[in-house]
Amino acid sequence: MPDTAMLLKVLRVLLEYGMLFWLLMFVGKISRWIFLDMKEKLQEQKPPELQSDEAVLEVLGRDKGEEGLVKRRFAFSEQITVGRGEDNDVVIPESFVSHHHAVLFRRGSQYVIEDLGSRNHTYVNDQLLTGKAYIKPGDTIRIGLVTMRFER
Amino acid sequence: MERSAVQGERSIGFARAGSFLLMPLGILLAGLGVLCLKGYAIGAAGKVLEPAVLPYLLVCLAEALILQFLLWRKKYDFILLPLVLMLCSVGLVEIARLKPELMVPQLRWLCVAQAVLLILLRFWKQIREMLSYPYLLGLTCVVVLGLPMLFGTEIGGSRNWLVFGPFSLQPSEFGKILILFFLAAYLSDHRHVLSLPSMRLGPLCLPPMRFIAPLVCIWGAAVLMFVVERDLGSALLFFGMAVLMTYMATGSKTYVFLALLFISLAAGVSYLAFGHVRVRFDIWLNPWQDPNGMAYQVVQSLFSFGTGGVWGTGFGFGRPDFIPEVHTDFIYAAIGEEWGLIGSLSVLLCYVLLALRGISIALQCEEDRELMLAAGCSMLLLLQAFVIIAGVTKFMPLTGITLPFVSYGGSSLVSGFMELGLLLALSQGTQERGTSRG
Asked: Which of A9, A53, A83, B183 fits a 20 to 30 Å CA distance from B169?
C-alpha cells in the first residue's frame, strides 16, 4: 500500500511544520497580549504624578544644646536622611542619635519615614515608630532631643 | 481601535482565557502524532507510547483546566500558566522522542507540580508570613543545602541528591526558593541602610559592615556547599541571584563591582585548586583539542545546532541522541537540532516573556518585599535558562543545571512550578487593585 504510506508521510511532514508554526503563533499572540497590557497599565499610572513633589522638614526646637539647628528648614523631593554621621542630610550631633538614625523617602505620591534600627528610636506624633510608616503633612517627628515637623 | 480591544480584554470570558491552553495542548498532540506516525512507518507503533501515559496525560489536562479556571475566576494573571505549560509540553514531546521510558515519570511529576501549585495558591496567606523571619529562612536554606553532604548520593558527578526509596530529590532546587525568600525579606528590610554610604574607598561606597555581614555569611555558606558538592551550576545561579537582587534593591553599582571582583578571584582560585573546574574551562576555550573525550558532549551539542539550521531537521528526525544527558541538561541542543533556529528562538522568547510578565507583576506590587520576591522569581527563571542555554551553546563554560520546565527532572519541575506559584499569588493583589481603581 504505497498510497497510505505516502499519505501518512505527508501528514507527518505537515504536522512537523504545523508544530513550528503553532509555536511561533503562540509566541506572537502572547507577546502582543503582554505588550498591550503593559501599555494600558502605563497609561493608567501616569496622571497622579503631577502634583508638587517637594516636601519640607522644619526643625521646631529643642530643650537644650547648640542652637544651630533651630528653625532650619530642609527641603527635599526624593529622600532625606537624619543621623549623627556627617554624611546625612540632617546632621544632629547628639549622643542620643544613631549614626544613621532615620530616613524619609517618597513612594508614589506619598512619603514614608523609616527608622534604620536606631538605638533610641524615632517618635512620630509622640508614638514609637516601628519599622516604617506613611507620614502626613503636619506630623511631628522626634529624634533624640530634636523635634521636626513634616510639611509639603 | 487597539485601545478598545484592550479594554475588552480586561474582563474577558473564560472561553478566551481557556483558549490559551489550547496552544500547549496542540504542540503536545502534534508531537505525539508525529511520533506515532513515525513508529507506524517502521512498524512499531505500539512501542512509541506506553498505554500508561494516557491516564497521567488526562490528569494533567484536567489539573491544567481547573487551575486556569481558578486563575480566571479569582482574577490572577492567566498568561503565565499557558506560557509555562507551553515550555512543559515542548519538553514532554522531546522527552517522549528521546527517552520514551521517561515520559511516564515526567508526566507524573507534572501532575505533582500542578498540585503543588494549587496548594501554594490556596495557602499563600500563611506562606507569606515566612517573609517576616529572614534569618530563619537563611539558616534553613543553608541546612537544606547541607543535607546532601551528610546523606547525599552521587549521581552524574555531583553529590547533590537525596534518595528517598523510589524517588530522588535535588535539594538545591528547593534551596534556591528559600534563598529567594531570604534575599527578598532581608533586602527589603534593610534597603535604605544598604544604600547609605558609610565608608568611602575611592569611587566605592561601602555600606555599614554589620548590615551586609548576614547577607555575605548566609550566601557564602550556600556557595561553599556547592563547591564541596561539585555543583557549579547552582553555585553560579545563587551567586547571580544575590547580585541581581542586591542591585535591584539598592540600585548601587558598588555591589555589582564588588561581586564581579569576588567572582573573578573565586574563579581563579577554583581553576587552580579543582580539577573539574579546570576541565570545564579548558573545554570552553577550545573543545576541539579533545572532541572525542572530555569535550564530547559540548562538541556534539554544537554539531546539533549546526545540523538544525534555520528550519530544523524536523521533529523526530534529528540525531540528538549522540549527546550524553540530552534529556536533561542538553535538551536545548535537541530542540535546536529538530526545531531549528526558529523553534529554539521561540523557546528562548517564551522565557523572556515569562520574565517580562513577572517584572510587570512585580512593579504592580505595593509592598517592598513582595516586589522583591516577584522580581527575584522572574529573574531566577531567566537566569537559570540563560546559564544552561549559554553553556549548551558554548557562550559560557558549561555548568550543569536543568532548563526550567523543559528538561527531564522532578525536583526541577516542582520547584519551577513553585516559582510560578509565587508569581501567580503575587499577581492577585495587583489585578484586584487594578479593577477597583479603574
From this structure: B183
Q: Are residues B60 and B80 in the same domain?
A: yes
Mutation for testing the B interface, residue in A27, A78, A104, A113 having most B CBs under 10 Å? A27
Are B270 and B394 within one domain? yes
Of A31, A39, A103, the CB nearest to B353: A31
pLDDT digits (tens, 9 = 90+) for B183-219: 999 888 887 777 665 566 656 666 666 677 777 887 7
* pLDDT at residue B204 in the model: 62
Question: Total domain count for chain B?
Answer: 2
Smallest Cα distance from A129 to chain B, Å:
15
Span A27-60, pLDDT tens digits: 999 999 889 988 888 887 665 544 556 788 888 7
For residue B5, is pLDDT > 50?
Answer: no
Under a CB-based contact definition with an 8 Å cutoff, are residues B36 and A67 in contact?
no
Q: Which of B58, B88, B122 is the last residue of a domain?
A: B122
Same domain, B98 and B139: no
**A23 has a chain B CB within 8 A of its CB:** yes
pLDDT, tens digit, 9 for 90 and up, residues B159-174: 677 877 677 788 888 8
In this structure, are residues A55 and A139 in contact, taking their beta carbons and an 8 Å threshold?
no
Domain with B385 in it: 126-437
Distance CA B299, CA B427 (A): 42
Same structural domain for residues B222 and B363? yes
ipTM: 0.81
Same domain assignment for residues B200 and B225: yes
- Last residue in a domain, options B64, B94, B122: B122
- Chain A residue numbers with beta carbons less than 8 Å from the beta carbon of B364 are 41
Residue B208 sits at the chain A interface (C-beta within 8 Å): yes
Residues of B in contact with A24 (CB under 8 A): 342, 346
Assess whether B108 and B188 both reside in one domain: no
Q: Roughly what angle, to the nearest 10 degrees, separates helices B80-98 and B331-338?
A: 90
- B323 vs B397: CA distance, rounded Å: 17
CA distance B227 to B225: 5
Q: Has residue B47 got a pLDDT over 80?
A: no
Q: Which residues of B touch A36 (CB under 8 A)?
A: 2, 5-6, 9
CA atoms lying within 13 Å on the CB side of residue A21 = 6
Contact B196 A38 (CB under 8 A): no
The size of chain B, in residues, is: 438
The verdict on B246 and B183 lying in the same domain is: yes
Residue B118 shares a structural domain with residue B132: no
Q: Do B314 and A8 touch (CB under 8 A)?
A: no
